[in-house]
Amino acid sequence: xxxxxxxxxxxxxxxxxxxxxxxxxxxxxxxxxxxxxxxxxxxxxxxxxxxxxxxxxxxxxxxxxxxxxxxxxxxxxxxxxxxxxxxxxxxxxxxxxxxxxxxxxxxxxxxxxxxxxxxxxx
Amino acid sequence: xxxxxxxxxxxxxxxxxxxxxxxxxxxxxxxxxxxxxxxxxxxxxxxxxxxxxxxxxxxxxxxxxxxxxxxxxxxxxxxxxxxxxxxxxxxxxxxxxxxxxxxxxxxxxxxxxxxxxxxxxxxxxxxxxxxxxxxxxxxxxxxxxxxxxxxxxxxxxxxxxxxxxxxxxxxxxxxxxxxxxxxxxxxxxxxxxxxxxxxxxxxxxxxxxxxxxxxxxxxxxxxxxxxxxxxxxxxxxxxxxxxxxxxxxxxxxxxxxxxxxxxxxxxxxxxxxxxxxxxxxxxxxxxxxxxxxxxxxxxxxxxxxxxxxxxxxx
Lengths: 122, 314
Description:
The structure holds 2 protein chains of 2 kinds. Chain A is α/β, with parallel strands linked by helices. Chain A has 5 helices and 5 strands; from the N terminus they run E-H-E-H-E-H-E-H-E-H. In chain A, strand 1, helix 1 and strand 2 form a beta-alpha-beta unit. In chain B, the strands form 2 sheets. In chain B, strands 2-4-5-7-6 form a 5-stranded mixed sheet, covered by helices on one side. At the A-B interface, helix 1 of A face helix 4, helix 5 and helix 8 of B.
């Protein structure tokens, strides 16, 4: 069973997305802020990380930077899942090593699932 | 200091910040005006030197022409700068608001998509939880839109205020009852005391409710891990003083001067809680100013904050 780490401060979104991931036979672990997210990424070694940008305690870009600098986590694919849609943010995320950048309101939840599966190579 | 000068000289960078083309940018226009002033000074010198015999008079005329042009250039570019700054703030306002609205909107959208999906089967016991999610997120959007409408009315000046005699004591008592459950859920004790025979104040009840709700809500929200929130009402000459003291996170010293600014959120609370709109205290101050009152605070980082406001007695 593949594990997905969802770093997101909206607990409702975590629950909703967690429900469908579990139905699709994935294991979801969640973090409500960047620091916990980083810790879980190191300890749990997930197969994929879904990362929000506006987060308490540490901005998503800082989390992404640290993930990519750490040899233990650098290979884990990261999908940015946010509601910021400035071109500079997209460019920064890709520059820092994110695999995909998704603006939440522009995607249906099924489409996000497809991107998740694609990133996992399924 | 050198960095400051460097920033001032970076004209292209400053124009980019305003989101304007170079020819519409106040800083660039100032440079153009500068070149024009130099040219005008040279021309007036040449003309003066040819037709006027006294060199002192020539220099005097050149100085007068250059000074007048400089003042005109300064006034024009300052007005452009103000317009550009207003336009930048408007774009920033739209960016922040759209982001704030998108968070609850995503929650509602995804929850409904899961519920309506044929692919994902929502268990019956989850249905109620999903409806509660939707309800809560709609309430969040309504709250934000209400705040924005007040802000918009404040800024347009179309802000009508009814001044009615009201008992601040009764109003707070009702609110304390309502907020007690919310406070107790976070292990916070909400105390309220009022001076005997407190006179009524002259204010708009619905607006005063917005102010007090905002202050009570903040005090509870930013008192982490249990504590006490104390509300007091005291008569002070021809005014009534409201004080709300919390044992919360406090406001960092260097950020205290910005606390009533629109959309400002102190760094320590933005880290704890990313949801606030940064409009609450701006709205409170604007309403109290309109009601002839005043608001201020005392705060110590890590120890707590006390917010005060004063309102005139009828």
